[in-house]
Amino acid sequence: MSYYIALGLMREPFSTSPDPAFFFKSSSHLQALNRLEIAIRLRRGLSLILGDVGAGKTTLARMLLTNLAQEDGFAFHVILDPSFSSEYQFLAHLSRLFGVQPAFKSALDCREAIEHHLFQTGVTEGRTTVLVIDEGQKLSLDMLENLRVLLNYETNEYKLLQVVILSQMELLPRITRLRNFMDRLALKYIINPLDEAETGELIRFRLQSAGCVNAEALFSPEAIRAIHRQTQGYPRQVALLCHSALEALVMYERQVVDESLVMGLTEHESRWTHATANA
User: Fold this and answer.
1) Which of 3, 48, 78, 107 could tie 88 with a disulfide, CB 3.0–4.6 Å?
2) Rounded to whole angstroms, how far apart are CA atoms 258 and 39?
3) Does the predicted TM-score (pTM) go above 0.85?
4) What rounded mean pLDDT belongs to the chain?
5) Are residues 83 and 101 in the same domain?
6) Maximum CA pair distance of the chain?
7) pLDDT per residue over 19-34, tens digit each?
8) How far apart are CA 256 and CA 277, in angstroms?
9) Same structural domain, 64 and 168
10) Separation of alpha carbons 47 and 52, rounded Å
């Protein structure tokens, strides 16, 4: 039996999948989401969201899609892994993603077809084309240059392509050397980890979203403090540790996740990390 069933929950509260239903609106995440929506609605072009591993960037992107995809006039396209080996491969993939299917012979053919498509959808049909790129740290300099060129397609009033890049921090020093790319950034935002209070709010929010009727009492304040200390407030790490804590709660037939339980789990994880590092 899954632990969440044993605890009377309707679903897994601490999955690390980017489920919009479990999107916790911390001050940092909510500001990023609101500013992204504004930039896209105004069709300002390029938005960059940076954050360390596990900061919640992918879930933020899913929430953005959920919010805007319900409205008419938006066409969303997503690239989950931008590890393209050539300019042509990238542009051909982008063309297929947009539903453009000419007989591609070169990168120039792809680019011209994309330009025509963006003018058709953006000007003639009045729709907003949005390209969301996750794992943006994998973008090569060639891919960034191609995005810069695509962002040149515009009317007198707005950009025809809205690009949202979500990336780990390692992309930042690379793009700062590309002045022409940086000049096109309409929005740049860094997602910060949660503070201790927000970590507790995240835990309670996820438990309540999963059907917990006693979310306030399931984790002691000391446990939440220990969880924040061990995870530094990164949502994915919080979810992983809380998942392990609830498993232990059921296995050891305890009623509350307390500090001693959390510390026992983190000590075990430390031993595991040390053993694998020396294997």
Assistant:
1) 107
2) 43
3) yes
4) 91
5) yes
6) 66
7) 999 999 999 999 999 9
8) 33
9) yes
10) 17
Domain total of the chain: 2
Residue 243, domain CATH: 1.10.8.60
| CA distance linking residue 49 with residue 36, whole number of Å | 9
Measured distance CA(78)–CA(80) in Å, rounded: 6
User: Which residue's structure tokens are 């943006």?
Assistant: 136
Q: Are residues 172 and 213 in the same domain?
A: no
Which among 141, 164, 190 is the end of a domain? 190
Is 129 within 8 Å of 77 (Cβ atoms)? yes
* 69 and 159 housed in the same domain: yes
For residues 107 and 199, state if they share a domain: no
Q: Among residues 190, 219, 246, which one ends one of the domains? A: 190
Q: Same domain, yes or no, for 58 and 125?
A: yes
Do 245 and 164 lie in one domain? The reply is no
pLDDT 10s digits, 116-137: 999 999 999 999 999 999 999 9
How many angstroms separate the CA atoms of 106 and 208, rounded?
Answer: 53
Name the one residue in this structure whose structure tokens are 């009045």.
126
CA pseudo-torsion sign 189, 191, 192, 196: positive
What is d(CA 80, CA 164) in angstroms, rounded to the nearest whole number? 12
